[in-house]
Amino acid sequence: MEKTLAIIKPDAVSAGNIGKIIERIEGQGMSVLAMKMLHLDSKKAEGFYYVHKGKPFFNTLIDFMTSGPVVVLVLSGQSAVTSWRKLMGSTNPANADAGTIRKDFASSIEKNAVHGSDSPESASYEIGYFFAASEICVIDKQIVDKSGSK
Fold it and tell me: Which residues are catalytic?
């Protein structure tokens, strides 16, 4: 199973959409292996988004990502990177397909509700940026039978 990083951004957290987004993730057959809420400081946000340093939107991105709490998650599933990116939708919610997270929860290209790794290599780096290996759990889906009981 492939892993990817997901971030529920400050706009979606403040709007109360954490549970709705996680429900969609699990509805697509992906598992949440790790999750934590944190408030990024400038240093942590700048380190994470270092690839965008020097771009015109960098400072506003950092301001946004430090404006409130985020939820970072490690997701697992078949082609998790591609599956998560498809579920997120286009970066610009105006161009996102109906039923995607960004179409339903984002308000603008800047405040677009979620982040996702763009490749397995990026996912590996990004997961390590936020999580120690000991914080990532293994989910045994055989524990719960089809009726939902143990």
Answer: 115
